[in-house]
Amino acid sequence: MVEESGTLEGLADRLGDVETWGVLHLTCHGKVNPPTVLLETDTGAERRASPTELLGCVGSHPVRLVFASACDTATWDPDAKTSFTDALVRGGAHTAMGFASKVPDADATQVGAALHARLARGDALALALAEVRRERASDPDLDPRAWASCRCFTQVTPGALVGAASRRVAWKLVRRANPEAFLKARGRSIPVAPRTRFVGRRPLLQKLIRAITERGSLGAAVLGIGGAGKSSLVLRALTRVALRPVVFYKVISRPELLQALREACADLPTVSEALTDDEVKRAGGEEWSYRALVQRVLALDVLRDHPLVFVLDDAESELEDDAARGVKRLKKEPRDTITGLMDALGSVPEGRSRVVITSRYAFEIPDRRGRDLFEDLVRIDMAGMTRGDAEKLLQQADRYDVRGVPRKGASRALAEDLRARCLRAGAENPRFLALLHTALTESPKRGAAVLAEVERYLKEGHRPGDPEVVRHLEGLVIDELLKLVGDAGRVALRALTVFSIGLPISLATQTVDESPELIERLVDLSLLERDTEGMVRVPLLVRPALGVEEPDTRKYILTRFFDALPDDWREDAEGGWNGPLDRALCLFALAPRRGAGLACRTSVAHGGERAAPERGGRGCAEASR
Are 111 and 136 contacting, i.e. CB atoms less than 8 angstroms apart? Predict the structure, then answer.
C-alpha cells in the first residue's frame, strides 16, 4: 500500500485500514540534530517527525521493520546519544534500518528495492542485507555510500522478520469532515475515485487545502477537462480538513443552497433558528432577502467554531455559451446565487467558511459593481497525469475495483503489452484510463477491440463505436467548444499539436502568432491544459478533432518556435543541457523537421549525467545525423 500525503495523519489513517503489515518504508529527508525525518503538513509545509511521533502514528500495529530511506537516519547524534533508527528500536520497533551518511535518492531506492525483493522471497534479514551489499559493491554506477552506510538496528537476533513491538504511544487524529455529505449531495450521487483508486496530485491537493484553510482567499476553483479528477481531488481535501461541507451537484439555486445549508447545520441550534421555514421561503424568492439571510447566518459565532465549505460541483451544468465573446458564462439564477454567497463570505470579518467550485471551464462571476469575484478564488488547473502516476493508478486498478473494494480470486493485472498500450492511450485522463482498464479486465476480447478503436481515434481521428467510449468523448463537447473559439482558436490549437511537451504561454503565443488572451481563453475552455509549472499543451483527447498540419505549415511553425526559444531552453556554451530530459528529447526530434541550417548537439546533460542520443529513439538519431 502507498500513502502519498507525506503527513503523519495520512499515514496513521492509511494504517488503520489494515490489520497486519510487515514493513514500513519511508522515503523522505533526514536530519541528525535532533534525529528526525522531514515530512509535510496537509498544506505542504515542513513537518519534522521524531521517532516517538512516528511510532505513535503507527499505533497498535506490530512494527516488524521500519526502513527510513533518508539521509543520516542512522547517523549518531552525540547530543541525543542516539540516531533516528536506533531510537525507533529503543522505542519499541522490532527492527529499523537507515543510512549513516548523505545518499542520493535514486541510489537509496535501488538498495531498498533489492533488500525488499530478498525479504519477499523469505531470506533472513541479516543474509538479505549482506547479499545486497555484496551485489551493490560491484555496481560502478551506484554511489558507494548507498550500500556501505546502510545500517540495521534490532532488538532481537536478526533472523527472519518475526515478532511484534512491545510499546506504543497513541496517535490522535485531527477531526475530519464526513465525506458522505459530499458523495450524496442533495439526493444525487457524485462519481468520485475511492481513496484506494486515487494517486498523485499532491501539489494540487496541498494548494487546495491551503486555499480553504488559510487567510487571504474566499476559496478555490478547480478546473479541468472531463474525467481529470476534479471531484475526487475535492473529496480528498475534505477528508483532511475540519470544515463542514455544504454540497451542490450540478444544480445551483437559492432554494437549493438554503436547504443544503439547513441540512448541513441541523445539529447547530442557532443556525436552525435563523433558517426558519418562513425565512427560507422568502429568501428563495427574493434576491435581497437571500443575500441578507446568508450574510446573517455566516456571521453567527457558532460558524466561527464550525466553519463551512460550500462545494459547487460540476458548475459547468449552469453555464451557457456567450458566442459573441467566445466564452462560457453563468445563467442568471446560478450567478445571483453564487455572487450572494461570495459577497456574504467576504463581508464576515475573520470568517473561516469558504467556497470551492469545480468546473470544466473558467467563467466570470460579476457582482453588482461589475467586479469579477472569480478572481477572489485560488485557481487550480487539473492537467493530465504524469506517466508515473498513471502507472500507479493502473496498479491500484489491478488490486481494487471501481468502488475501492479489493479484488478477489485471480489477479486482474494486464499483460505487459496491453498495459503499455493502455497507458499510451489513456495515461493523461484518470476516468478514460479506468474505462480502458475495466474493458480489458472484464472482457479481454471486447477490451482489445475497444483499445484498438481508441488507438485509431487518437492516431487518425476515426470515432470509436463502443458506447461507453462514445459517451465519454461526447461528454467533452470538444466540437461545440471549437465552434465557440472560431477559426483563430482552431488554427492555434492545431499548430500546438506539433509539440508533445508543454510550452510557456509567451512561447506558445509567439509560435502560433496569436495574442496571449486567445491562449488564455483556450485554457479557460479546457481546450488547452496548464500544468503546475504554467506550461500549456493540447490534451490528448482534444487532438483528434483538430487534424494534422501540412508539412509546409509545420515547417513554418517550427521555424517560429525555434526563433522564439527562451535562453533557458537552449544549450550552454559547452553544448550541455540542464533542463528536463523529455524537453531535450522533444527538441532533438523536432529540430531536423524544421529544415536545414540548425546545428544539433548529439548529447544532453541532465542531472549531472550525459544522456546519449539513442535514448531518445528515432528523433535523437535523426537530430544526430
Answer: yes
